[in-house]
Amino acid sequence: MTKLRPTPRAPGLAPEVEEIPLGIRRLAAWSWRIIVIVAAATVILYGALQVTGILIPVLLAVLLAVLLTPVVKILTRYTFLGHAAASGVALLGLLLVVAGMFTLAGRQLIAQWADIQAKAVYGFQSLTTWVTTTFQIDDTMISSAIDEGLTKLQENAETLVNSAVSTAAVVGNLATGIVICLFTLFFLLSSGPTIWRWVVGLMPPAARLGTHEAFRRGWKALSAYVRTQIMVAAVDAVGIALGMVFLGMGSYAVPIWLLVFLFSFVPLVGAIASGAIAILLVLVLQNWVFALIMLGIVLLVQQLESNILQPFLMGKAVELHPLAVFLGVAGGAMIAGIPGALFAIPVIAFVNATLLYIVGRDPSPELGSDQAIADHFAAIGAASRAHAQSARAGLGAPREAGPAGAAVGTASAGIAPGDQSGGAEPAVGPAGTTPATGTADPAPDDRGSGDRASDDPAPHDPLPDQRAPSDPDADEGPGPAPGAEEPPSSRP
């Protein structure tokens, strides 16, 4: 019968640690690391929420830079424009497109404004008549309700004024954010690679190339997200605009298309707000039957877009599961509201692609390696090593100056260079022997005046904390420069 033997003790473990089961020790090791990661993420999120006035425009500029970077590359490659000029042209084109769309939609609304106003008044009167006849409400009750509402407004006048001031502040912050976004977008387009090389250059040399390659994978995933989101928003806007045409309101199709397209970039709230505006417009201009039909069209389009089109197209583009897309939007909305829901999926897509590359699962092997940036970092490393070697050579020069200066002084006094104390010890020749007798140097234990130069520090030898730090990329250890003569005390 086999006897059970105790598990041999791991070397270096204290008895009280050995008593803890291995699974508990591993769980504790993982637990404190996870706690540190969660704490760091919490601090980062808290800091980001304090500077949302700058962070949100910068993130929006990054998304727009992803969209306009191909345009800048085409202009630079096929025209005479430089990088900065091409970036300016692309930015100006974006502004013209946005202004043109708003101008077209505004002109159509202005042209139909008289009709909208007349139908809105008629619709309100019809609604009032229907309410009074259906619920048996007379004009006295309506007048008293209006008077009560005016009284409440007067009582809460201070609150309304504060709300107006807050709204003005929000408008001012919005204008500031637009300016920050445009400036950031221009510099990202014109000198984005230069900024990125500077950022990567701050990292340790061994991590530069890997960081750059991981960033390329994340940038590709971010580009796929932006293109897919534009396609999804366009499909949503076209569907609702076609519904307006089907109901005989084709003159309002362009404004509704623009409104739905822009609001589609704001998850959750954007689709609800744009759909409500479309339904309200149909209710005012037509009747409640057409409004119910428009409600069905909006619900159908939004359900197809949110449950079928967006999860599968977005998940395929950014290589995320539809559940991750849904939970990411919900979590972003809980943490930072509408901006969190807007930027949750781009951030998750970028982080997912970079982490996959770091752990060895390249999400985009077709990208290969960026040889140009590898050569750039190699040149930086070579220059750093050359600078470190020249610094070490400068440190070796004062050490040679000490014995040389002593030799000059003793020579002027008629004393041999190796005999600074005036004793009978002869000077040391190049081969370690005296020129006349060929005898060897004194033994190491014989601490004569000739060895005093090697034991005592040189007059100009810097202190250890004043010496230049060694370069981790250098191939050689610290020492004198190549070709420099060693001090006499270090010769055998």
What does this structure look like?
There is one protein chain. The chain is 73% helix and 0% strand. It has helices at 15-18, 22-50, 52-78, 83-111, 113-134, 139-155, 157-201, 205-246, 253-263, 269-285, 288-318, 322-358, 371-412, 452-455. 19% of the residues are buried. Residues 400-492 have low confidence and may be disordered.
Name the average pLDDT: 74
Q: Pick out the low-confidence regions.
A: 400-492
Q: What is the rounded distance between the termini?
A: 69 Å
Task: Report the portion of residues in β strands.
Answer: under 5%
Q: What is the radius of gyration computed over CA atoms, rounded to a whole number of angstroms?
A: 39 Å
Count of DSSP H/I helices: 14
- Overall geometric form: extended
Q: In sequence order, what are the helices and strands, one letter per element? A: HHHHHHHHHHHHHH
Structural class estimated from helices and strands: mainly alpha
Overall strand count: 0
Could you estimate the helical fraction of the residues in percent? over 70%
Main pleated sheet: none
Brief summary:
With 492 residues, the chain is mostly helical. It is built from 14 helices and no strands.
What attributes characterize this protein structure?
73% helix, 0% strand, 492 residues, 14 helices, extended, mainly alpha
Topology readout:
Elements: H1 15-18, H2 22-50, H3 52-78, H4 83-111, H5 113-134, H6 139-155, H7 157-201, H8 205-246, H9 253-263, H10 269-285, H11 288-318, H12 322-358, H13 371-412, H14 452-455
